[in-house]
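cron nightly-structures :: item 1 of 1
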Amino acid sequence: AGNEAYFSGTPSNEGYGGAGVFMAGHCTVNVTGGYITNNNCSEYTQRTFCNGGGAFIVWSSTLNIQGGYLTGNAGPGGGAIMTVRITHDVFDDAQYAEGGKIYMTGGFVSGNASHVKEGGGISIDGYGYMSLTGGYVTNNRAGVTNSSTFGDWGGGGIFVSDHHALLYVEN
């Protein structure tokens, strides 16, 4: 709780974040209780960014949420969680062709905010996937400051990109 993540790099270094949890390269994290709360990613430029205040999921990793609370997190995009495929010189091959995956069957994603971009609660970006069959996504806000020229397409609760991202919802 209460972690800060900053990213400073050259234009060739892109796509880091997750002040609470950073997942990359075929890993799995199971959240069945507890709190991922009050974490903040704060840097964003067009070529360097720190997204997913609570959790950032890339390169074929999986986050399973069966309970617990993701609350009070903030980042430029994906206040609580962001999942995306990011290419990088070292990781740009077939084994990292998928974005991150989120399976939510319970728990709370609430009171999170994106400062600049989309997805106040959850942002599902390029090649990302989310299955939402239980739990609550409530009281999240997108584009809180929106002081940049990078745009905000909304998605206070959940944002789904037009770049091969998928959201499956069942009640």
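cron nightly-structures :: done
The two ends are 30 Å apart (CA to CA).
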